[in-house]
Write a structure and sequence with these properties.
6 helices, two-stranded antiparallel sheet, about 35% helix, Rossmann fold
Length: about 240
């Protein structure tokens, strides 16, 4: 396994990505991993390693710049707040990571995917919405709302596909948001699918999530099912 940090520029900030590959073959698909609200952490890097073992070249993204990680939930909210409120800024940050990945040796620039968790799930949806030529994106328990945000119009003629993996009991994503994004994707004739897991809350992929009051609850069953769904989706869209 080859693993190293790489620097890349996103507007006026320097970002610290984590690049992982399992072999030296050329023309391999590439995948972005976008972290949750506390920043690029070991959870995101471990997902990058797991994807590399499946045969991808993977870049764990730094959406906050300088490898910044929040030390608590309040700081995390302050970091994601400007990006949540300004979707153009969010898109620019993740597109910079996309542009970095496609330039890496061995990456097939025509076969790029992305996954994201919570805040990262929203981010990969915005990557697709931007019209960037990403082949397929997967949102794990992503935030789906546009409420209160300065949004960017959905790009025309989007060719990429999307898989949304969602917990039915997620208190941070009301059913109105689920229906709204389904309608938006359908109206735009984007190839979309959604898996909704019953008896499943927010952050269901994170083994450290155990706060029922906040709706953050790990589900071993949903975690395994969602990873299989992602793998099947990428086998279809990136191979």
């Amino acid at each position: 396994m080859q693993e190293n940090y790489i620097s890349y520029q996103a507007g006026d900030i320097q970002c610290k990505g984590y690049l992982v590959s399992h072999n030296k073959d050329e023309h391999l698909p590439g995948i972005l991993v976008v972290h949750a609200w506390h920043g690029q952490d070991e959870f995101a890097r471990e997902k990058a390693r797991a994807l590399a073992k499946l045969g991808y070249i993977v870049l764990a993204v730094d959406m906050f710049g300088n490898g910044k990680n929040a030390t608590d939930d309040d700081e995390a909210m302050s970091l994601i707040g400007p990006l949540y409120a300004d979707r153009e800024l969010m898109q620019k940050r993740v597109v910079a990571a996309f542009d970095t990945l496609v330039k890496q040796p061995g990456v097939d620039k025509y076969r790029i995917g992305a996954i994201g968790f919570c805040f990262g799930g929203l981010t990969v949806i915005e990557l697709l919405r931007s019209g960037t030529p990403v082949k397929s994106v997967v949102s794990f328990h992503g935030i789906l709302s546009h409420l209160g945000a300065k949004t960017v119009p959905l790009a025309s003629n989007i060719k990429g596909s999307i898989l949304i993996l969602h917990g039915y009991d997620d208190p941070r994503v009301p059913m109105s948001d689920v229906l709204d994004i389904q309608q938006e994707l359908n109206d735009a004739k984007i190839d979309w699918q959604m898996n909704i897991y019953g008896l499943t809350s927010h952050a269901f992929t994170n083994p450290n999530a155990n706060d029922k009051n906040k709706g953050l609850v790990y589900s071993d069953k949903a975690n395994k099912r969602s990873w299989i769904a992602m793998n099947n989706f990428f086998q279809e869209t990136l191979q």
